[in-house]
Q: What sequence folds into this?
C-alpha cells in the first residue's frame, strides 16, 4: 500500500510541476479536445469557422510549447508580463497564419508556394529549437534523451490503449446488460477527451522531463534486437556494393532510398545503442568489446553507403538535371556527411557540442532548401532544368525538351518561364514535333474533362416550354475516336425509336465552354446546370452529362460522350 | 414480374443464372463504383499489358498490378457520387447512363466482371458479352441518388483517387434496390416489358 501511495504522490508532484511548466500548452490542448467533442454533439459554429478555430489553436499550441519551454523555469517564479506578451505574440502569429492559409487559393502558385514554405519554416524552427532546448535542459546526451522520449512515449501509448479498451469493455457491458445504446459516437468522444486530458499531457511530460532512466528491457531491445537488424541491413548493402563493383553495373535507382532509410531508422538505433553499451561497460568496469566497438564506429562503417548514394544521385543529376526530389537527396547526403564528421569536427574546433547540434544543422539546411534566395530547391532545380531545356531546343533533342517541358508545366518557375518565353503556337509546335517522333506521347497530354448534373441538386426542373416533344439522347463515340474542332462543329445526334431521327449539332460552343471550365479549375464539378443549346426555333439540345479527353496543344478531342434531351416541335424533326 | 429477392453481392455460385430480367432485387454486400474515366483506365491498362504478352484473367491482371482490384465475380455500379456532407457516408449516389461504358464493358466481362448497375440501354456487343460470360445488367432508379445513398453504409476510395468523384470506390451496401434488366440468357427488360405492355392493352 505504501508503494502505491508513494507512486500516486510522485505522479501528483510530477503533474503539478507539469501544469506549472506548461499551463497554457495543456489548457489549449484540453480546450481543443473539449470543443471537438462539444461540436460533435451541438454545432458550435459553421464548418468554416470551426476549421479556422482548429487551425489557429493547433498553431497556437505549438507556439505555447515553445514559449513555455524557453521562458518557464521550474526553479524560478514565472515572469508573468514576459509570458503574457509571448502568448499574445504566439496567438497573433497563429491568426495571421490561419488568414494566410485561408487565402492561399487567391494567390499565384509562386506566392502560395513561398507562403506555405515560410509557414513551414516558422513551425519547423519552433519544433527544432524547442527540442534543442529540451535536450540541453535535460542535461543528457541527445542519444539518451531520444531513447527516453521514444520509450516513454511507447509507455504512454500503451496506457492510452489500455484505458481505451477498458472504456469499450464498460460500454459493451452496459449495452448488453442495462440498455441498448449506440455507443460508437460516445466512444469516439471519450477517445478525444482521453487524448486531450491524458495522452497529450503525459506526452508533454515525457518529452519535457526525462529524469527516468530507460529500463533494462528498453536498453536490451535496442542493443540486442534492433541493433543486429541494422547490422544485417548494412551487411546486405555491403554485399550489394561488392556485387556492383564486381559486375561494373550502375547502382540501382532504389539504392539511394534504401541507404537513406537505413540512415533514418538505423542512425538513432546505433547512436542510442552506442551510449547504452558504453554505459553498461563503465558500470561493469570493462571495455565495450568488439560488438561495442562496431556499434560505436557505425558512423564510419556507414561511409560506403554515403558514397553509393553520391554515385547514385550523381548519375541521375548528370543525366537528367536537378529536380526537387534530387535536391532533397543531395541535402540528405550533405546531412549524413556532417553527421559522420560531427565528432571529429567538434574535436578539431575544440567545442563540446553533442549530436543535439545536428538539430540546428538540420534546421539551417531546411531554411536554405525552402526559402533561401537563389539556392532553394525550387530555384536551383528550375535553373538546372532550364539549362537542359535550352540546350535540348538548340540541339533539336525533342525527347529531352518534352521531358523538361512536362516538368515545367507543374513547376512554379517553369510555368512562368514558358509563359514569358514561348507562345502557345510555339509550344504546340514543340508538341507536334514530339508527336511525330513518338505518336504515343499524345495520349499523355490528354486532359480528362467531365461534368454532369445531379437532378436532386437542381432547384428548378427542365424547362420544356415552347416544345411539344422531348427525346432522351446519348452521343457515345467509339473507343479512342478522335475529333478535330471542325468535326465537333458537324456532329449528328440521333434520337427517337431506333434512332430514326437526326439533328445536326454544332457542339463547338458546348465543348469550348467545358474546356474553359476545366481549365479554370472547375474539375469534376458535380453540380452542372441544365445546359440549353437552341439550334432553331423548333429544336433545343439540353446537355446533362458530358465527358471527353482534350489535348490542349493539338486541340484534339477524344472519346467524347454526352447525353441529355432533345426538345422539339413536331415540324422540327430532321429538317429542324 | 418475379417476386422480390434479397441477394448477397458478390454473387454466390449460380445466383446469376437464377436472376431473370424483371426481377426486383435488393443487394447486400460489396459493390465498386466506376464511371467512364475509371473504365477507360482499366481498359487501357489491360490492352497495354496484353499487347506485350499473353492474355490474362482478371485475377492475374490484379496480381501483376495491372488492375487496382480483382474484378472477378464483382459488380460495378456506374456512379460518380457528389461529395459527402458531414456525417454522411457518401453524397448523392444515383447511376449514370450505362451506354457510356459500352465500349469498355465486353473486355471487362471477359476478365471476370459479373454484374453492372446503371441506367438505360446497352448495345448489342454488351448484351452478347453478358450472355457469353454469364453476367447480369441491373438498373438503379435514375434521379433517386439521395435515396440510394442511404443504402450505402461504407465507402472508401481504393483506386485512381486523382479522378476525384470518378475514382473507384469500394462500397458496402444494404438492401440496395435494383431491377434486373438484362439477364444471363440475354432477356432484356427494355424489350420484353414493352412487348408485355402492348399485349396488355
A:
Amino acid at each position: 500500500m505504501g508503494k502505491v501511495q508513494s507512486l500516486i504522490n510522485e505522479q501528483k508532484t510530477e503533474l503539478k510541476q507539469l501544469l506549472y511548466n506548461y499551463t497554457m500548452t495543456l489548457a489549449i490542448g484540453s480546450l481543443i479536445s473539449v470543443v471537438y467533442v462539444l461540436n460533435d454533439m451541438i454545432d458550435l459554429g459553421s464548418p468554416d469557422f470551426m476549421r479556422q478555430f482548429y487551425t489557429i489553436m493547433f498553431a497556437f499550441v505549438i507556439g505555447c510549447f515553445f514559449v513555455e519551454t524557453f521562458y518557464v523555469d521550474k526553479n524560478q517564479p514565472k515572469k508573468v508580463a514576459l509570458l503574457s506578451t509571448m502568448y499574445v505574440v504566439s496567438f497573433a502569429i497563429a491568426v495571421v497564419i490561419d488568414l494566410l492559409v485561408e487565402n492561399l487559393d487567391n494567390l499565384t502558385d509562386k506566392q502560395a508556394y513561398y507562403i506555405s514554405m515560410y509557414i513551414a519554416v516558422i513551425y519547423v524552427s519552433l519544433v527544432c529549437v524547442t527540442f534543442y532546448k529540451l535536450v540541453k535542459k535535460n542535461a543528457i546526451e541527445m542519444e539518451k534523451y531520444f531513447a527516453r522520449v521514444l520509450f516513454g512515449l511507447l509507455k504512454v501509448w500503451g496506457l492510452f490503449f489500455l484505458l481505451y479498451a477498458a472504456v469499450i469493455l464498460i460500454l459493451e457491458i452496459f449495452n448488453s446488460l442495462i440498455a441498448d445504446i449506440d455507443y460508437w459516437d460516445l466512444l469516439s468522444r471519450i477517445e478525444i477527451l482521453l487524448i486531450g486530458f491524458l495522452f497529450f499531457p503525459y506526452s508533454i511530460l515525457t518529452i519535457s522531463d526525462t529524469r527516468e532512466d530507460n529500463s533494462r528491457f528498453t536498453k536490451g531491445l535496442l542493443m540486442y534486437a534492433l541493433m543486429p537488424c541494422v547490422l544485417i541491413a548494412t551487411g546486405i548493402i555491403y554485399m550489394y556494393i561488392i556485387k556492383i563493383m564486381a559486375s561494373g553495373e550502375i547502382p540501382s535507382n532504389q539504392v539511394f532510398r534504401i541507404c537513406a532509410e537505413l540512415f533514418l531508422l538505423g542512425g538513432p538505433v546505433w547512436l542510442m545503442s552506442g551510449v547504452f553499451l558504453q554505459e553498461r561497460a563503465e558500470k561493469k568496469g570493462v571495455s565495450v568489446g568488439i560488438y561495442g566497438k562496431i556499434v560505436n564506429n557505425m558512423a564510419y562503417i556507414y561511409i560506403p553507403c554515403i558514397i553509393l548514394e553520391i554515385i547514385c544521385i550523381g548519375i541521375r543529376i548528370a543525366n537528367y538535371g536537378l529536380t526537387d526530389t534530387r535536391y532533397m537527396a543531395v541535402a540528405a547526403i550533405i546531412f549524413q556527411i556532417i553527421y559522420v564528421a560531427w565528432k571529429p569536427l567538434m574535436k578539431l574546433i575544440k567545442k563540446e557540442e553533442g549530436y543535439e547540434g545536428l538539430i540546428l544543422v538540420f534546421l539551417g539546411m531546411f531554411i536554405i532548401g525552402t526559402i533561401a534566395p537563389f539556392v532553394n530547391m525550387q530555384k536551383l532545380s528550375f535553373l538546372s532544368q532550364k539549362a537542359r531545356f535550352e540546350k535540348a531546343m538548340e540541339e533539336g533533342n525533342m525527347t529531352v525538351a518534352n521531358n523538361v517541358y512536362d516538368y515545367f508545366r507543374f513547376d512554379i518557375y517553369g510555368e512562368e518561364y514558358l509563359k514569358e518565353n514561348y507562345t502557345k503556337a510555339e509550344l504546340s509546335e514543340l508538341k507536334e514535333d514530339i508527336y511525330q517522333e513518338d505518336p504515343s506521347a499524345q495520349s499523355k497530354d490528354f486532359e480528362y474533362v467531365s461534368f454532369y448534373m445531379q437532378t436532386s441538386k437542381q432547384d428548378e426542373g427542365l424547362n420544356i416550354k415552347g416544345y411539344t416533344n422531348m427525346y432522351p439522347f446519348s452521343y457515345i463515340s467509339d473507343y479512342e475516336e478522335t475529333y478535330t474542332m471542325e468535326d465537333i462543329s458537324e456532329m449528328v445526334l440521333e434520337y427517337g425509336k431506333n434512332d430514326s431521327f437526326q439533328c445536326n449539332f454544332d457542339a463547338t460552343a458546348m465543348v469550348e465552354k467545358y474546356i474553359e471550365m476545366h481549365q479554370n479549375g472547375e474539375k469534376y464539378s458535380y453540380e452542372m446546370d441544365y445546359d440549353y443549346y437552341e439550334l432553331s426555333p423548333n429544336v433545343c439540345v439540353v446537355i446533362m452529362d458530358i465527358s471527353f479527353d482534350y489535348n490542349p496543344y493539338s486541340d484534339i478531342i477524344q472519346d467524347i460522350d454526352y447525353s441529355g434531351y432533345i426538345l422539339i416541335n413536331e415540324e422540327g424533326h430532321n429538317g429542324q | 414480374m418475379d417476386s422480390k429477392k434479397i441477394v448477397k453481392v458478390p454473387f454466390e455460385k449460380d445466383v446469376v443464372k437464377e436472376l431473370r430480367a424483371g426481377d426486383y432485387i435488393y443487394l447486400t454486400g460489396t459493390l465498386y463504383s466506376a464511371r467512364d474515366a475509371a473504365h477507360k483506365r482499366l481498359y487501357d491498362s489491360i490492352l497495354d499489358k496484353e499487347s506485350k504478352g499473353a492474355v490474362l484473367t482478371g485475377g492475374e491482371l490484379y496480381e501483376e498490378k495491372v488492375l487496382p482490384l480483382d474484378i472477378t465475380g464483382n459488380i460495378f455500379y456506374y456512379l460518380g457520387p457528389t461529395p459527402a456532407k458531414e456525417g454522411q457516408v457518401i453524397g448523392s449516389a444515383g447511376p449514370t447512363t450505362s451506354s457510356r461504358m459500352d465500349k469498355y464493358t465486353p473486355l471487362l466481362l471477359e476478365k471476370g466482371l459479373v454484374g453492372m448497375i446503371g441506367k438505360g440501354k446497352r448495345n448489342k456487343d454488351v448484351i452478347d458479352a453478358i450472355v457469353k460470360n454469364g453476367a447480369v445488367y441491373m438498373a438503379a432508379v435514375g434521379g433517386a441518388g439521395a435515396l440510394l445513398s442511404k443504402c450505402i453504409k461504407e465507402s472508401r476510395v481504393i483506386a485512381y483517387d486523382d479522378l476525384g468523384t470518378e475514382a473507384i470506390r469500394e462500397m458496402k451496401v444494404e438492401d440496395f434496390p435494383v431491377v434486373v434488366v438484362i439477364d444471363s440468357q440475354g432477356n432484356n427488360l427494355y424489350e420484353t416489358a414493352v412487348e408485355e405492355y402492348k399485349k396488355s392493352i
Q: What stands out?
A: Chain A touches chain B at residues 47, 448, 450, 452, 454-457, 472, 474, 476, 478-479, 523-524, 526-527, 545, 547, 559, 561, 563 (CB under 8 Å). Strands of chain A lie at 447-452, 469-476, 482-483, 491-495, 501-505, 531-536, 539-551, 556-568. Chain A has 21 helices and eight strands. Residues 142-177 of chain A form the longest helix (36 residues).
